[in-house]
Amino acid sequence: AWLGPESAMSMISFSYAAAAICLSFVPLLPGLASRQISFMQQTVEGIQIVARQPTLRGLAISYSMYQVTWGVLYVVVPVFAASHYDASVGSSVTGFLWAAMGIAGGIGALLAGHLRTTGRERHIMAIGMVITALAAWPVAAEFGFGGLAIGLMLAGVMSGPIDVALLTLRQRRTDPQQLGRVMSISMSLNMAGFPLGSALAGMVITSSLSTTFILAGIASIVAAIATISIPSDIKSVA
After folding, report:
1. Cα separation of 41 and 49, whole Å?
2. pLDDT 10s digit of each residue in the chain, 238 long?
3. Range of the domain at 221
4. Is residue 11 part of a domain?
């Protein structure tokens, strides 16, 4: 970002282009779905599978609420920096905060790879979401710049175990023949909370920064409750 916004955006564009080029070398495997079924019909069937399966339905609710938290944070963090620092410094502060969160998230993902998540996914997700809620409020909201930095890094570290547990649980409880179709629908529903969180933050932030952080925390608490409500392995429905 020190090279300017144009250079930063160019670097992001080049990274996506490089990823697309690398993806072109991945071998194409034959699909399991019948070619006689239309794309729209496959989409509708995927939505029906997710809606009827208790685990997939629960994950769609819980993780989308968790994403509301991140949608709120993506709005409130730059506003916090702009309200506490000059314009020339605020953008650098924002970049530093997100960089710290990203590094912490990478560390969290690496650590999550060493966890035994099978059969414990719901509890790992719920604990991570509760800690994320506390990181949003009061840690990030009430303790100045240091609290915000620590809160974001804590939320970043927790995102690793939450994501790993989510992917593990979803894959374990999905018919392998339906996995691709279910994944596409489920992932879309999971991410639906992010724009909703940003929209809510935009409406609330004009009245109070602290209230906006509280909103982020409440969303993660609701997500944790929804996660625990997902049937356990004994009660799961295939």
Report:
1. 12
2. 567 778 888 999 999 999 999 999 988 776 655 567 787 888 888 899 999 999 999 999 999 999 999 999 999 999 999 998 887 788 889 989 999 999 999 999 899 888 888 889 999 999 999 999 999 999 999 999 999 999 999 999 999 999 999 999 999 999 888 888 888 899 999 999 999 999 999 999 999 999 999 999 999 999 999 999 999 975 544 4
3. 42-228
4. no
Q: What is the pTM of this model?
A: 0.90
CA atoms within 13 A on the CB side of 43: 5
Q: Is residue 17 part of a domain?
A: no
CATH (domain of 190): 1.20.1250.20
Round to whole Å and give the CA distance between 175 and 179. Answer: 6
- Report CA torsion sign: 102, 4, 67, 60: negative
**Burial of 74: CB neighbours in 10 Å, binned 0-12, 13-18, 19+:** middle
- Does residue 33 sit within a domain? no
Q: Domain tally for the chain?
A: 1
